[in-house]
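User: Fold this; tokens only.

Assistant: Input:
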Amino acid sequence: MSSNNSISVVALICGILGVIGTFIYQVPLITWILFLCAIAGIVTGAIGMKKSKAASGKASGLAIAGLVCGIVGVVFGITGVACSACVCAAVGPLGCLSPNYQQSLESAAYEIADYINSIS
């Protein structure tokens, strides 16, 4: 396997992981890590396209697919990271990593609902 093709495969894998990471919103840390994978998919996809164009005169399909998946992962990931940050802010510092994460999240949701009911 050539170096150009290896970079393209890495781009595709990172891009796919970035898209999948969008749907793992229950564990915010994983969402953030896979968001970084989507960014890596964009970078390695661009590098793979440049190298394959220099070597064969046309872009590798794997590099293009990795670049597209990375872009989709970043666009979706921005929403996921924003939602994860809000959830972590609601349950407190390092609350997302605690074993009682689900209970903390439910408690925060009830507190927010009580607050909204009290002001209306």
